[in-house]
Amino acid sequence: MRGSGVLLNISSLPSEFGIGGFGEETIRFAEFLKSGDCKWWQVLPMTTIGLGDSPYSGVSAFAGNYLYIDPIMLRDKGYITYEECDSLKYYGTPYVVDYEFCYAQKKRAVQMAYNHIVNTNADLLYSYINEQRGWLMDYALFMSLKDYHNGKPWFEWEEEYKTHDYSAVGKFMSEHSHEINYYVCEQYLFEEQWSERKKQINDLKIGIIGDMPIYVSYDSVDVWANPKYFDLDKDFKPNKVAGVPPDYFCAEGQLWGNPIYNYDNMRKDNFSWFCDRIERMFKLYDKLRIDHFRAFDRYWAVDYGAPNAINGKWFKGVGRELFAIVRHKFPNADIIAEDLGIIDDGVIDLRERTGFPGMKVLQFAFDSEVSPHMPHNYIRNSVAYTGTHDNTTIYGWLASLGADARAKLYDYIGEHCELEGGENSRLVWACIRTMLLSVADTVIIPFQDLAGWGDDTRMNIPGKAFGNWRPRVTNEAIGRIRIDRLRRYNYLSNRN
What we know:
By secondary structure, the chain is α/β, with parallel strands linked by helices. It has helices at 24-35, 71-76, 82-86, 99-120, 123-131, 135-148, 159-162, 166-175, 177-203, 221-225, 263-268, 272-284, 319-329, 345-354, 394-400, 403-413, 426-436, 447-451, 475-480, 483-492; strands at residues 3-7, 40-42, 207-212, 240-244, 254-259, 287-290, 298-303, 313-316, 335-337, 358-361, 382-385, 442-446. It contains 20 helices and 12 strands. Helix 1 (24-35) links the parallel strand 1 (3-7) and strand 2. The longest helix is centred in the middle third of the chain and has 27 residues, at 177-203.
């Protein structure tokens, strides 16, 4: 079924608390999408965030991001008072996320709610523990131990904690039950709020496209609690780490530093950890984009401690056997394969065997005469983007094009005029119209492109460790979008 949607992360929504969250802003944005006859809202990973505030480097592949918990919803549930809610408000700039402020204040909000719940209805937490799988208690224990060690990574803890010694961990749990239950409460509040909001969004006939990073962080509960699933030496140090070779985004490649999976051990229990993770993702989202899909065919690995990703090697992945199991366990799973970067016949064959739609990106279309990203080369079973969270905006891209490439693009989209930004930009909207009129079943437009904004509002610059994931939008900016034009193009392209 043809459809379209908008890419805007939860963190980028307007709110009074320094970062977007699960408050009324989510419903207002879903109503905005509905008014444009869109069917999809794409977000970045909702799981925990880590170094550099990145949603792709969280401390848990299962636990939700507490920064999205909405204080007003806590207040309306009676978990915090009106005065406590007001004390959490942010009075700085509405245009970027203030992560330092938000980390502290949202933690305060959860602590106040936790104090109320344990004193009035602690059974809520016990029921939630019984409903969840092992990931919840692993996460709560890991975070409590991390606090106990003043934030040190798990591989620098004392040996008995680093190795998950049964006796030492059991003693810690009995002595720190209050701290552990705080993190159980954190996840209960996340789950309670998102379940309510997701139902309201789905009732508007808007589906959520989520994102699952292929790798997890070294300093994560996933590696600490399941070291056998990762390629570690006897001292729990990675033998090799993940990255990608030099490409469009970075001349030295990207050294991500995530530990590589030990697929031999995963194979022994039919990839149960991966299956549990995918099951969890479909409790959060309606459609799942799997990041860096190409690594399931072949993945790039670099020696631990290498200064960059240039001198790595390709290794064979486990895509065929893994996705055969995934298809058997989740026959109706709606998955998108992020097949960008260095793509060869093996990746294409794996994607076609799974039946997953791949991705097309307009900003990559004019790199060569036969680019698969040229809209006339699209196939129906694909998801097309003007750009992703890793790209600059369409306006920024247009401004960066050389004269020959720009002339070719202008001929292609059928517009010849001066480049101007803003929500009425003829050239930006011509690019959007070109994508919507393509044969691709699904088209996703980043909000920044609907607004005609420049490079300073891009979400991420690959290879840059800090300063990403910050842009936000305001209610005024949403109100200025030419939603009538988006609705008209959706109608013309049979996407409404």
